Amino acid sequence: MLGMPSAPVVQVPPKAVAVTVTDDTLSVDLADGRTIAVPIGWYPRLAYGTPEERADVQIAGAGHGLHWPALDEDIGVEGLLLGKRSTESAASFARWLAQRKQASLG
């Protein structure tokens, strides 16, 4: 038969199964066996987080997202695959950083 295939190919969105954050790299292991590694500098809140805050990551959205509660950071797995960096504005990050410094003093 020429033309359309008899069974459609369904793309399964990538799902995270494990996350590791070092001082310079965010690595995400995917359910399909791939590992994505990007510079931590792409996500300033992770870069400024303590090792303990970085380690406290939750795999959310059935594996489609990552959430760091203490850093108020959310990263989508699909965005990582597309090479997307943080889109947070400099002003927003500056406010977050100022609040973080104030909280550590108080």
Please give the number of β-strands. Answer: 6
Major sheet attributes: 3 strands, antiparallel
How far is the N terminus from the C terminus?
A: 72 Å
Q: How much helix, percentage-wise, in residues?
A: 25-40%
Overall outline: elongated
Cα-atom Rg, whole angstroms? 17 Å
Contiguous runs where pLDDT drops below 50 for at least 5 residues? none
Strands of the widest sheet, in order across it, are: 1-2-3
Percentage of β-strand residues:
25-35%
Number of helical segments with 4 or more residues: 4
What's the overall average pLDDT, rounded?
91
Element order, helices and strands? Answer: EEEHHEEEHH
The assigned structural class equals: alpha+beta
Structural write-up:
29% of the residues lie in helices and 26% in strands. The chain has helices spanning 44-48, 51-55, 77-81, 90-105, and strands at 16-21, 25-30, 35-39, 58-60, 65-68, 73-76. The strands form two sheets. The chain has a three-stranded antiparallel beta sheet. The protein has a three-stranded antiparallel beta sheet with strand order 4-5-6. Strand 1 and strand 2 form a beta hairpin. The longest helix has 16 residues, at 90-105. 16% of the residues are buried.
